[in-house]
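sry for the spam today, last one i promise. C-alpha cells for design, 469 residues
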C-alpha cells in the first residue's frame, strides 16, 4: 500500500496511521467529484484529501469530527496551499463549522476566498441588538472547537453598510478556536475586517493579518473572549472610526499577547476596554488615524500590563489611559519597555492610574527601516538586551530584547573584538580570536576586528591596538 515508488515517505506514514486507526482517506476529485460530496460520505475520523484546483463550493462540516486538507497535510509542501482554492462564489460563507465538533476537526492547507458571509441574527448581548448580520466571509464558526492551520484567507468581502456585517475573514462565536500558520489578507466587513471573536476561547500562533478593511477595526475584534496570541503581525489594515484600532479587546478575560507586531495601520494600534491583558514583547508603532497619534488606548475597567515592549509614535503621546468614573478606572503598568518620550508619552485622565516601573526607556528604538515596514531592531538600538533580565533569555543566549522582533546577536556583531559580549575588548577576547583562527571556537562573528571578512592574525593586532588605545 505504501511502496516508496508510489508515495512520499510523509504520505506513507500518514496513510499508515489512518489505516491503523480505522479511518479512511476520501480523495477529491478521484473518489468524489466535489468536496461536499466527500464530506457527506465521510465517517467520523476520516480525512477528505483534496487535489490542487479551484473548487466553487460553500462547505458545511458535519456534526462529527473529520479532517479536510489539501495535499499539504500529507507532503508538507506549502505550495499546495495556494494551489488548492476554496471559492465561495459570493454565495455565502466559504466554510461553515457549527455542530459541536471537537479539536479532532481540522481544516488545513487551503486558500479560502470569495465568501460573502452567513446571514445570522446576532445575540442581543453582543455587537448589535437583535440585528441580522452577514457574518464570516471566509469561515463561519459557532459552537465548535476546530483546529485551523496553514490557510490563506483572502478576498472575502462583506457589506460595508452600517452594522451590516461582522468578520470578513472569520466570524467565531461560542467556540474554542486553535489557529496557526495562517494569513488574513484583503478581506473586508463593517466590523472586523480580518476576524471577529465573540465569546470564544482562542489560541492564535504565527498569524499575519494584513491589508484588510473595515469601518471599525480592520484587524481583530475580540468581545468577551479569552485570547492567547503568540507571534502575530497586524499591519497595513484600513479602518474608518477614529477612536477604534486594528486590534480591539473588549471584556476579554485571560488575554495574553506575546511577540505581536501592530504597525502601519490606518487606524489606532490597540484598544483595550474592560479587560486586563498581559502584553509582552509587543511592537506597536506608526499606526495613524485622523486626529490621533495614540498607539495604545486603555479604556475604562481595564488594567493593561506591558513588559519588554515598544510603543512608539513619531509625534504626540503614544499611549492614552482614559477611565470613566471613580468606579470605572483605567490602569496602565509598564516596565522594561520603550515608550515615546517615556512617561511624558502617556496621556492619562483623572480616572486613570499609571504605574511606571523600572527599566523603561523613552528614546528612539532605532528600527532597521520602519519606513519600509522593517521593525527589526538595528544593531544600534538601545532596546537590545534592555528587557527584563529575569525573563527567559533570547535564542541567542542574551538578555531578552524589547519589542516583537528579536535581534539575533549571533548573526551580528555589536562591538568588533568583544567575543565575550561583556562590553569590553580585553585579553580574554584575544584568546578567543586565536581559538577562532585555530578552529576551536564557533562564535567568531566579532573576531573580524578589522572588518576585512576574515578572522586571522591581523585581527589579533587590531584587538591589541584597541586595548592599548
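last one done:
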Amino acid at each position: 500500500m505504501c511502496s516508496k515508488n508510489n508515495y512520499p515517505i510523509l504520505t506513507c506514514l500518514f496513510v499508515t496511521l489512518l489505516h491503523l486507526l480505522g479511518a479512511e482517506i476520501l480523495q477529491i476529485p478521484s473518489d468524489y467529484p466535489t468536496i461536499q460530496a466527500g464530506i457527506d460520505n465521510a465517517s467520523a475520523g476520516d480525512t477528505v484529501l483534496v487535489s490542487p484546483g479551484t473548487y466553487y463550493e460553500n462547505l458545511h462540516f458535519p456534526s462529527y469530527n473529520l479532517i479536510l486538507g489539501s495535499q499539504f497535510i500529507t507532503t508538507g509542501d506549502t505550495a499546495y496551499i495556494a494551489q488548492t482554492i476554496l471559492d465561495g462564489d459570493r454565495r455565502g460563507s466559504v466554510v461553515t463549522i457549527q455542530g459541536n465538533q471537537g479539536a479532532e476537526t481540522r481544516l488545513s492547507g487551503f486558500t479560502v476566498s470569495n465568501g460573502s458571509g452567513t446571514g445570522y441574527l446576532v445575540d442581543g448581548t453582543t455587537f448589535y441588538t437583535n440585528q441580522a448580520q452577514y457574518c464570516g466571509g471566509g469561515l463561519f464558526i459557532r459552537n465548535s472547537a476546530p483546529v485551523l492551520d496553514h490557510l490563506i484567507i483572502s478576498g472575502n468581502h462583506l457589506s460595508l453598510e452600517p452594522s451590516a456585517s461582522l468578520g470578513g475573514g472569520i466570524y467565531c462565536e461560542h467556540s474554542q478556536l486553535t489557529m496557526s500558520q495562517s494569513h488574513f489578507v484583503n478581506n473586508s466587513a463593517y466590523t472586523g475586517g480580518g476576524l471577529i471573536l465573540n465569546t470564544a476561547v482562542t489560541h492564535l500562533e504565527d498569524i499575519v493579518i494584513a491589508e484588510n478593511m473595515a469601518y471599525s477595526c480592520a484587524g481583530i475584534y475580540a468581545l468577551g473572549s479569552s485570547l492567547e496570541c503568540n507571534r502575530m503581525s497586524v499591519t497595513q489594515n484600513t479602518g474608518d472610526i477614529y477612536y477604534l484600532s486594528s486590534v480591539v479587546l473588549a471584556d476579554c478575560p485571560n488575554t495574553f499577547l506575546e511577540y505581536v507586531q501592530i504597525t502601519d495601520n490606518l487606524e489606532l494600534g490597540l484598544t483595550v476596554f474592560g479587560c486586563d491583558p498581559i502584553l509582552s514583547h509587543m511592537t506597536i508603532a506608526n499606526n495613524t488615524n485622523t486626529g490621533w497619534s495614540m498607539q495604545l488606548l486603555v479604556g475604562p475597567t481595564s488594567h493593561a500590563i506591558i513588559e519588554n515592549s515598544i510603543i512608539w509614535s513619531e509625534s504626540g503621546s503614544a499611549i492614552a489611559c482614559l477611565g470613566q468614573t471613580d468606579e470605572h478606572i483605567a490602569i496602565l503598568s509598564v516596565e522594561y519597555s520603550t515608550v515615546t518620550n517615556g512617561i511624558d508619552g502617556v496621556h492619562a485622565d483623572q480616572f486613570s492610574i499609571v504605574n511606571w516601573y523600572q527599566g523603561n526607556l523613552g528614546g528612539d528604538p532605532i528600527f532597521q527601516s520602519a519606513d519600509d515596514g522593517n521593525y527589526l531592531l538595528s544593531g544600534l538600538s538601545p532596546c537590545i538586551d534592555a528587557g527584563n533580565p529575569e525573563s527567559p533569555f533570547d535564542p541567542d543566549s542574551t538578555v531578552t530584547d524589547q519589542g516583537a522582533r528579536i535581534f539575533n546577536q549571533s548573526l551580528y556583531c555589536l562591538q568588533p573584538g568583544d567575543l565575550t559580549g561583556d562590553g569590553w575588548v580585553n585579553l580574554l577576547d584575544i584568546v578567543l580570536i586565536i581559538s577562532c583562527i585555530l578552529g576551536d571556537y564557533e562564535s567568531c562573528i566579532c573576531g573580524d576586528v578589522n572588518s576585512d571578512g576574515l578572522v586571522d592574525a591581523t585581527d589579533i593586532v587590531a584587538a591589541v591596538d584597541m586595548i592599548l588605545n
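The longest strand covers residues 176-185. ok im logging off now
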